[in-house]
Write a structure and sequence with these properties.
Blueprint: H1 9-12, H2 23-36, E1 45-46, H3 49-56, H4 60-73, E2 76-79, E3 83-86, H5 91-95, H6 118-125, H7 133-141
Antiparallel strand pairs: 1-3, 2-3
Length: 142
């Protein structure tokens, strides 16, 4: 069973209502930082949106917006009936190139010769027929 973050979360996530940054963004940034610095480790169950909103003295929508952003970015996982937990695999670890030392799955090989489609080849082999010099001069103007 996942560990539950109990009361006292307000000490970690003190919000500044007078700040110009919206409250949901402050909460999102603090939660993200806590996850990245492993204050909240993988698998830890986060409080419900209602209980966290009550503890912080903010609207539930504020907490929902922060949770939704974290969920969209892959920092947390939510399952109906199981609550919200810190993701087992964080997005930063997926983006890291130092962990991936294997060869790429495919290689792009550029041909030194450019190939035309069958239609392009047929058009390239068709001679240009000029019926009058007027038409030729008109084409030169374009």
């Amino acid at each position: 069973m996942a560990n539950q973050v109990k009361s006292g979360i307000t000490n970690i996530f003190e919000l500044q209502p007078q700040d110009s940054t919206p409250l949901y963004r402050q909460l999102y940034e603090r939660l993200r930082l806590a996850i990245l610095t492993e204050q909240l480790t993988a698998g830890v169950q986060l409080p419900s949106t209602r209980s966290l909103a009550s503890e912080l003295g903010v609207s539930r929508n504020t907490v929902l917006l922060a949770y939704d952003q974290l969920l969209a970015e892959g920092y947390i996982e939510g399952k109906v009936g199981s609550g919200t937990t810190v993701a087992q695999v964080l997005p930063e670890s997926l983006l890291s190139t130092s962990n991936h030392k294997s060869k790429p799955q495919f290689e792009y090989k550029q041909s030194s010769q450019k190939r035309l489609s069958d239609r392009g080849t047929a058009l390239a082999q068709t001679p240009l027929i000029i019926k009058s010099t007027t038409e030729y001069k008109d084409w030169q103007l374009l």
